[in-house]
Amino acid sequence: MDSxxxxxxxxxxxxKGLVAKITNFFYSKGFNILSCQQYVNxxxxxxxxxxxxxxxxxxxxxxxxxxxxxxxxxxxxFKWSVNYxxxxxxxxxxxxxxxxxxxxxxxxxxxxxxxxxxxxVISNHEKLRPIAEMFNVPYYYLPVTKDTKEKQEEEIINLLxxxxxxxxxxxxxxxxxxxxxxxxxxxxxxxxxxxxLPAFQGANPYKxxxxxxxxxxxxxxxxxxxxxxxxxxxxxxxxxxTHDCTPQTLKRIGADVExxxxxxxxxxxxxxxxxxxxxxxxxxxxxxx
Amino acid sequence: MDSxxxxxxxxxxxxKGLVAKITNFFYSKGFNILSCQQYVNxxxxxxxxxxxxxxxxxxxxxxxxxxxxxxxxxxxxFKWSVNYxxxxxxxxxxxxxxxxxxxxxxxxxxxxxxxxxxxxVISNHEKLRPIAEMFNVPYYYLPVTKDTKEKQEEEIINLLxxxxxxxxxxxxxxxxxxxxxxxxxxxxxxxxxxxxLPAFQGANPYKxxxxxxxxxxxxxxxxxxxxxxxxxxxxxxxxxxTHDCTPQTLKRIGADVExxxxxxxxxxxxxxxxxxxxxxxxxxxxxxx
Amino acid sequence: MDSxxxxxxxxxxxxKGLVAKITNFFYSKGFNILSCQQYVNxxxxxxxxxxxxxxxxxxxxxxxxxxxxxxxxxxxxFKWSVNYxxxxxxxxxxxxxxxxxxxxxxxxxxxxxxxxxxxxVISNHEKLRPIAEMFNVPYYYLPVTKDTKEKQEEEIINLLxxxxxxxxxxxxxxxxxxxxxxxxxxxxxxxxxxxxLPAFQGANPYKxxxxxxxxxxxxxxxxxxxxxxxxxxxxxxxxxxTHDCTPQTLKRIGADVExxxxxxxxxxxxxxxxxxxxxxxxxxxxxxx
Amino acid sequence: MDSxxxxxxxxxxxxKGLVAKITNFFYSKGFNILSCQQYVNxxxxxxxxxxxxxxxxxxxxxxxxxxxxxxxxxxxxFKWSVNYxxxxxxxxxxxxxxxxxxxxxxxxxxxxxxxxxxxxVISNHEKLRPIAEMFNVPYYYLPVTKDTKEKQEEEIINLLxxxxxxxxxxxxxxxxxxxxxxxxxxxxxxxxxxxxLPAFQGANPYKxxxxxxxxxxxxxxxxxxxxxxxxxxxxxxxxxxTHDCTPQTLKRIGADVExxxxxxxxxxxxxxxxxxxxxxxxxxxxxxx
Lengths: 289, 289, 289, 289
Prior knowledge:
Chains A, B, C, D: Belongs to the PurU family. Chains A, B, C, D: Catalyzes the hydrolysis of 10-formyltetrahydrofolate (formyl-FH4) to formate and tetrahydrofolate (FH4). Chains A, B, C, D: Pathway: Purine metabolism; IMP biosynthesis via de novo pathway; formate from 10-formyl-5,6,7,8-tetrahydrofolate: step 1/1. Chains A, B, C, D: InterPro entries: ACT-like_dom_sf, ACT_dom, Formyl-FH4-Hydrolase_C, Formyl_transf_N, Formyl_transf_N_sf, PurU, PurU_ACT. The structure is a homotetramer of 289-residue chains. Chain A has 289 residues and is of the alpha/beta class. Chain A has 2 domains: 5-83, ACT domain (Alpha-Beta Plaits); 89-283, Rossmann fold (3-Layer(aba) Sandwich). In chain A, 33% of the residues lie in helices and 29% in strands. Chain A has 8 helices and 13 strands. The first copy, chain A, has helices at 18-28, 62-76, 100-110, 129-134, 149-162, 179-184, 205-212, 247-270, and strands at 5-13, 32-41, 46-54, 79-83, 89-95, 116-123, 139-141, 167-170, 189-193, 216-223, 233-240, 274-277, 280-283. In chain A, the strands form 3 sheets. Chain A has a 7-stranded mixed beta sheet with strand order 7-6-5-8-9-10-11. In chain A, strand 2 (32-41) and strand 3 (46-54) form a beta hairpin. In chain A, helix 3 (100-110) packs parallel to helix 8 and helix 7 packs across helix 8. The longest helix of chain A has 24 residues, at 247-270. The interface between C and D is medium-sized, with 32 and 32 residues.
């Protein structure tokens, strides 16, 4: 294997000796362990590991590694995935009217802060095309009405498949994706909800936040699931506000929270920091990365 | 009038010249304006003012002041209140099992940080009596069952009335007060809810926060109203948490948020910083106080 | 005067009746007061006001207004300025290698979040030219060596004057401007320092933050003054970090703090929210804006 | 060994296979690994581990465990310590005038949040004796003048030794301890500095923060070392402030930051979460504890 960083994400029922067994396995195969992060959920009796390996100097091939690992994984009931760091994720961004998250992602990608390939921006409006063009990213305008929703989603799916998209980012895309769409991309769609979930689920959260007189507003990035606004939460943040904020001011302040929260969530996904278990996202912090 | 700080809280329909008229009034009566804070709600077309006056050197009596002020207030539709700063508020604290908020309030009161008189602690359990006794505050044990609820609330009301209590603090009191009780003390009951409202309204918020996998937990201090957990929000704060937190850990981290949020809300109330309008609390910051 | 928002910023020795006198003045001239924010510094015995007026319906001309206001201002020792909201500020951005603040400002300006005109980007390197070009902003490359510093600054000054620049933003410009340059633009140069001032003044703050093992890193936006990193602080923020952060990680996390802090400071300046007094910046919050 | 939680803290030069070797060792001795946290400092080429073990079911004695562990530790250059969780730390609190941190620690200890024994409060003033007495903790009044400093420190040292004190908490103790004193208790003295270090080192930080016009104030808990305010930082936090805060207001707001930061630092120390390396404190988060 080439010199590269290999990341395994593992979850399984908790058991005596798991750390020793797993780290031993990689040590014996000639890997140096760059970082090894664990989480034991004693309530569910579950064990989670994110282990980053330096493959420099190892002779083992990918397929051999996986075959051997399976021998360890199977009896212990591992659910696992591996990323070899030799291929950037292909990302598609879905937008409607709001530009702040789109700018943020395109800029971070361009500056190397988000290590991925943005294959396209898809929108149900023409409005944000100039931004995609500034960054030389293809822009697909796919309008949608109640009657054409099914067809539009089909077109999106074709675009995603044709471009081998690995991650779909809903960067303030104001359409509700169908269950059928969402179920095709499990843990592959990240949405930003413009409130501190589970507060203000659904529409118009800033207006409702104003009416409720909250003193903090927030944003939540989560994986999209069939149940709207109910998917595993990846990242959240809030900002302090006062009675003097109008719904418009809340929206503006909220936009800065949204862009940061969404960017952090995408980065966590790209860097293989997330394991989803039931409806909870285990998000390991970066470790010397 | 003696040398003292007089605070007026005013709300009314917005109108041209309100600042000039009001500040002129006090200026002409010989007051020096220590601070004058305003908030215009353009959506509701409402005007709010908190004005703090130095009465030093004024000859006008309280009743004269109020009579004259009424002449200004009536035609302009003021809703107003005045506090002369010559009398500390009497406070009663309601508790059940959790001690952290009780400690915090008693200690802040003792150290002069909360400028009020704690007349009593009332509880449906004996558990926290030793804490009240440490601080030499009377402790009333009034147990409650479904059948005795009405009678117990009556006893509480008698205690509050006999002690001329101005403010009731629900410092993690785990009973739901009846509408009849709450309506007797409008904007005089402050509750601390152990979550970031409107998220996780109702029971067991930390357990539900754990299950939802949130990345922030919060606390909300609000005035108690008939609609449980729906009253005007005075103060909120959050703390960052991770997937690695159990419901117990969340509870512990949350306790530190709760105590600070509740203490701040009480301080705002005592210092006449709050005007409630519809279901929103306008909370003016301290100004050189 | 046209229908527009007029903002006065006033500072003077504190005195009885100032609010009444000032608000009366504007009321009598036919202005509606949109917001009137005050701050009394009892330590220095100084009074500060930011008052926003709706000029709709007033007949008075700008010069008449100012002449009349001077009659009030002079005997009371006002230091004051007025902004008529009919002209956008011209902004120049100085950069070197780091792109994050530049992107942020250009994008916010383009989206209407920063209501100003970006006249140019000036840099001692060619590196960031493509970003300026994406946003159709002229880019001036003015390299500098120890020997050419004086001449380069002269060229910058000429550019600024020719373009009637009102505000200079040092968006991670890694050259130290001479005193002579800085003194030409008092309270017109905003700098972002990549640490929580006064911690880590000077060079390499992230490296030093790493070595010191801090648990928070921050950023500070301030007006540039002769004393490097000592000018009036406009805005600060911090982000939590851990022992696991390398100087590079700190730099990356810090970049997100820097961009937000700088954008907020620019916005405060543009919206006439700041009065500098001695070395302190009084920054009034937005009020229903 | 009894059923209990055993915690090892290990630091050593980084090396291939360390995780595997260490976890293997404990696995082979019959321990279940509750949590295993690591940190690799690639800059210094150092490895750090905090490993928590469940000793239930192991037959090995403490001395056997340590002898065997030494065989692993020596060739790999471990610096290590072990805590068997069967003995609470003895804590002494040093105070002067400010009460907020003292209250906080005593209350948290009493409520089980800080799992330690508070053996005594020592002060150079009589002022806070009533608080210690409320909590039934011995209070030693040891006044100090320039001439008696040496003698007073000697008396403190005798008290600490006689009471087998493991941890000394400077809870706003306003005397500078001598180098000779500090060197007797390496990594055993925690101090709270009332500012965001390294900003405002030394005296009167709130007054200087006011004069500097900062927009955030903070607090820093660190181990005391010979170089005043320069020891390894354990925990920091900040709170937002405005120009409207006087030095007194800053002090009051700061007090709430101080008490939380100090309590968190003490908890980290008590729970064996800290490894000091050079002047940096590696502070592992709690993990399912």
